Amino acid sequence: MATKSTAWNQVIAGFGLMFNSWGLINAFGVFQEYYSSFHPALSTLSSISWIGSLQIFLMLACGSATGSFVDRGYAQLMTFIGCALVTLGLLFTSFSGEFTSAHRPVYYQVLLSQGVLSGMGMSLLLVPSTAIVPTHFTQNRALAVGLANTGASLGGIVYPVLTRRLLASVGFSWGMRATALVVLATTGVGGLLVRQRADLTKSPFKRTLYRFSCLKDPPYALFVAGIFFSFAGIYIPYFYISAWVRDTAFPLHDVSTYYLISIMNAGGLVGRIIPNFVADKFISGPVLTQALATIACAGPTGLLSALLARQLGLSICVLDAKQSPIEVGGADAITARTQQYLEVASNAEQNVGTNAGILGELLNRGVKCNTSTTYADGEFTSRQSKWWNEIPHTFYNNLLMIGQPYIERHFASHIDVPIYYDEPALSFSHKKSPLSVTVRTAKRTVEGRFCLAADGARSFVRNHLNIGWEGTKPNMVWAVLDCWIDTTFPVTREIVTLQVNGESRMAWIPRERGMQRFYVLLDGEITHERTEASIRRHMAPHHVEFTHVEWFSRFEIKERVASTFLYPTSSEPFILAGDAAHVHSVNGGQGMNTGLSDAFNLIWRLYFLLRHHSLPSSSSDQILSSYDTERRETAKGVIDVAAKLVRSTLADAKGYVELIEKNAGFITGMGVQYSGLSSPLVRESEHSIWKAGQRAPDLWLSDPKGDAVRLYQKLIYGRYLLIIVAAVRRAMEVQNSDFVMLLRLTGLSARRVGVQGRSEDVEEETHPEAFGCSWVKRGEEYAVLVRPDCCIEFVGDVDEVLEYTASRLPGLI
After folding, report:
1. Global pTM?
2. Residue 196: phi, psi to the nearest 5?
3. For residue range 292-341, what is the model confidence (pLDDT) as tens digits?
4. To which H or E segment does residue 287 belong?
5. Which residues form the FAD-binding domain (predicted)?
6. Of 12, 363, 518, 595, which is the most buried if we count CB atoms within 10 A?
């Protein structure tokens, strides 16, 4: 939250912008009276009112579209442009003429200048004047918003008196110029003070000018309708009262008619301050927030869940007990499979090159590593990268070494909703009809359909719900040190296992920024000094100097998994993920990555449950229950592998490396599969390189233009992929592109430059939209259904797969 001075400066800024948007509109009645007071008048009363009506219409119609630009962080620029347009609109109005017989103003010029140009300028002031102030306050929010809004009332008080007297004393042209000067000064000050919260201006890729889907929410639609009908008539007295009193000779006892406009606006001062003050002091409790999903904890799992949910347009609320994102320490690597997931997540971003986006920015900063080296008795004894280089059908055959602090900040920068730090959950409740969950913090009450608990190994949610926490503690504590060193040891971008006396008690991990991480297993007391001494002993005879230490910590090994990931039943609202669902040793680098896989496996399921309204109840139950089936078994497998690795550190390094190679499928993430688990979202089947329950292979394809592209570059998270191999004459069409994509594959058409053709090489009939693939064999026809988490669900004959898809996911194809 911003400092107090910055926060209250936004109130001043909002006041200035309100003063010159709603304030000027509230004062338009004085122009209505003035323009119609001459003979001949500027135009009819009805035609004159169109000037003010255009101002209101353009401010609201165009202003509602500018919210997208405020989200992107352009509020201050918008205020400056808006200030310029309103000022120019009034200046151009002054140039249209003078109310004399020699040079009378021309109606259409006044309409375009004061109505259109000023109205466009006001539209740029509208959203910054209302949206920024509440983001800077957790206390006295209603009062702060009310004080900012008094600018509309005060503008409606000041401008009628100021402008009408200027028009009477110095004439139309100079009166309008003087009014323009007041607008320039007051709006300019407001623009200079505008400051947006940086955490709310990131990741604009899913924001559009309008999102009409929000009108599908009945309460919101009724609210909009109520506002519409309120505005339909509210400005009639503001526009006409002064002219009506003049024309009807209504007795005011020498009070100028334009004072009536100021008096009407004066009532708004009371209404904008006193109720807001009372609300803050006596009525307001915690802020009520509506969200489809509440995400408890803004660690990597929670943040990726939030990022994916926002890509899919789900409303969420992210709560975290931490006071701020972590700055040092944490996890240190992203596996090959996680890199594939993040590439798919990156595909949703528009106009992002290969060196940017969710994955691209991490690749630019991290250190790629796919070699494990053993160092013992003063020399390197082995160097292995076989298990990385032999991963089939992938573009990523390495670990990406990068720290959790940067990963968290990076994910947060791609999320377009606020993250509420320092807001630990205090209590929970849920009801079954309709299915919903309520989460309460000291500052807000969040109501939603689901609550995702990713709040760590000591999960408050898991403990509060009394979910079982099964497993053991092997009584092993590792020291972890992030540092920079000066050494004669040959520093490489490899994972080095260092052995002393036949035991591999130390691992050396290369990190970003030239930093090094050491994991050291010590007996007895674990201190910073003993850790550095052990590192020197393992790296002997090379000299080591620790030039800077960023982080030192201890990590007690726990091997536990929650008894269920869904509570209280397989279809109800509490969901566990990440360390709240499973914890294990640091060996193998699977903690954070398993949590990120949980997120990737889960969020698309919630999207289908919340957005696919024609989903059969049987499919709905299976979609959510299969998350528990698949991810709990995976967690058990990860824990088993990590347990073997951590215990093997007491053996020689050769055995440790052999164990890594044996379990490379889990360590790289590429071997994790859901076949054989009786998952309802995996129909056991296999054809060629496609096997249900396994990851979809990242094949090289040739698009219809002949350009090379990989399969994972075509995937969009949240959508099923239906692959049709051959079957050229089968006509099919995607009915709902929000949930499924269609990809046709055909045999690869080789160019055969310098190669003599064979008689059997007859070109097969191909579909004009088909992608060439070298794995498609002549005469084959089949279909593959790939889930949104890039796992193969079913492989079979085209008719069989289409029938399966139609029954499970109706209305898509």
Report:
1. 0.73
2. -100, 150
3. 778 888 789 999 999 999 999 888 999 999 888 899 999 999 999 999 99
4. strand 287-290
5. 295-640
6. 595
